[in-house]
Amino acid sequence: xxxxxxxxxxxxxxxxxxxxxxxxxxxxxxxxxxxxxxxxxxxxxxxxxxxxxxxxxxxxxxxxxxxxxxxxxxxxxxxxxxxxxxxxxxxxxxxxxxxxxxxxxxxxxxxxxxxxxxxxxxxxxxxx
Amino acid sequence: xxxxxxxxxxxxxxxxxxxxxxxxxxxxxxxxxxxxxxxxxxxxxxxxxxxxxxxxxxxxxxxxxxxxxxxxxxxxxxxxxxxxxxxxxxxxxxxxxxxxxxxxxxxxxxxxxxxxxxxxxxxxxxxx
DNA sequence: GGCCGTGGTTACCAACCGGATACCGGTTAT
DNA sequence: ATAACCGGTATCCGGTTGGTAACCACGGCC
Lengths: 128, 128
What we know:
homodimer, alpha+beta, DNA-binding
């Protein structure tokens, strides 16, 4: 719950752009997964999402907020900080995400194979 | 099964670009739904997808074929024709799609409301 | 006063996606 | 012969997405 997010949470892995199933924009799904275990500060999110520049992370967060999937709270007590957390609506998205994730894990190899043979076939068709 | 696809299959409806959950490119999910009931010819697909230009439809079909989700068959017997049909892999995608679709139907209003109030709030913040 | 950390913003830019329009090569029907 | 149909291509183009780099307002702290 209050465990910090590890920097290699999405290491190497997560070629989300290759996945035919997408939730929101490019990084939205990863953001949501980061918030699964409770509210997080902007700087906390930046740790596992180090490949995402602040601008793009903010874009993603704003977009999720706009859709009512996450809630942004500015705390002014003691030290000023901003926390992001899943709304009930955002939480409800975890189910279809899990199903999609299961499908991807199950068929990932098949998908890559299909692409490779398709690309090989079309390349042959072009050059020879 | 052999019923023709109706032209208003996706009429009015299906602002898929607003849906946070997406399968493949802009039209892929609709193409898949068209193929649910069996193989279809290119010209058959163009009926419900009349808003999609031939180039874009071809792009979508190629992309789905590349991922091994659909199979393209050129028939040379009697009358030449091209048929597209779901592969087993493509068929397996129907389950996560159904889950995603259920989520969207269930939360669509909530989503639109969230956007509207967010946009109103930010607009107020800008002008006033 | 100067510096640091937080949570961003701004300006600029390249790539990609999707769309409009026009055209095309082969086959069948007339 | 020629016209229509089928299954696309070719070309161009504008809008959006995502990325880089630089900057910034605010408060706390030394």
